[in-house]
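As the next step, I needed to go through one protein, both as residues and as discrete backbone shape codes, included below for the reader:
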Amino acid sequence: MEFGPVCAVVGVVIGIVAGARSGGPAAGVALVLGAAAFGAAWFAHTPGRTVLAATACALLGYAAMGRALDGQVNSPLRAGVAARSIATVRGTVVSDPTGPAYEVDVFMRADTGHDTHRILLARATGTEVSALRVVQAGDRVTLRGRLAPLGTGSFDSAARWRHAVGRLDHVQLIALDDPRGLFALANAARALLLRGTEPLAPTTQALVAGFLLGDTRGIPPPLVDAYRAAGLSHLLAVSGENVAFVMALAAPLLRRLRLGPRTACALLIVAVFAAMTRFEPSVLRAAAMAAITLVALLGGRPVSGLRVLCYAVIGLLLVDPFLLHSVAFALSCGASAGIAVLSIPVGARLPGPRWLREPLAVSIAAQIGVLPVLLIVFGSFPLVTPLTNLVAAPAAELLGVYGCFASVASGVAPRLGPLLQQPTALLVGWITAVARAGAAVPFALDRRGALAAVGVVASGASVACLRVRRGVSDPAPR
């Protein structure tokens, strides 16, 4: 167990929660004290180093939350938002359009002057919906609309945790420019991949976009509900597996390079893929872990999966403390922690051949990791989840590799698309059939059932430990 990094993660979380509840006063003082405590931890010895590092992370987490809250309150757009002024805003779109047919929402990073930016939730209705729906993340836009405070609905409340300082209602698209830099490359790759899925049926095409890019906008809501009820909704959210699939496709090219250029190219691939998937919280976690692992290997210091996860979580929360309120981020971290800690012990205790035990152990460990989050947020946990994941996971893994290859190849050579995408359609059909069958199973674990199960397991463990101790203290006579 990586005790020190885990304590540091706990310290960051405590500091962020304390900063959120207090409003983050004296964030500058906390930042200085945190930096001093971190410097002291660098020269201290265990266990003092662990205590100092956890304290430093708590202080830095408090300072990060205070800074984030201050950025929302002391916004250059504050007066205009309060007065509901008509404004023309220039900025960069940071999310793809979402919403029903009669309304569309996008998040944009608005230029406020003096090299400062603030996030606005831009909303178009009526005849302007079709114009705003064509934009995508990374585009430079000029929008005209009415500034307004965020509402009390669930969507506007979630927008606050994405750093939005207000809304821009009744939006009109005045100007649209192509993205630059990383997003230009990412959007070109994304468009190529999506163009390669055009030979597929519309629903299958939407599911492939979900599997490969985490884009679930085109999937019918009943089908999304079936995946969720079967415990397979994580397949429609990009995670570390997707990053691994992309790296596997790039491996033949990377092997030809020396260690330094190989690491640089691998980091670029991770960054482009993260931009293709719009830097979703689960992607940020996976990309951060991949980057830390690559840098560690470059330095000749490989680290354990749990330590890498802790470092990634600490870094991401200090950069964006609002990630603590993201359910997707919590589920992604919980699944990764469960796999890192429990997959090997669980696999060692499962019967059967190795090819069956290892994937089942990974599935069980991941589900144990996300269980607390699911119970807290959704109130229940489908009991059929380990079985559906065991049956669907091999097809999902093959789809992640082959589906990406087939889509890119079909985008380059459209005539090959109908042939290359036939296996993709079969894999998607199998996973969807498993999801629908699992959704038909009515058994789920609720919060009370979880507490009862914990009590039973704890009692059984206590009895087992007692028997072991008696066996050691009272050996049988010869």
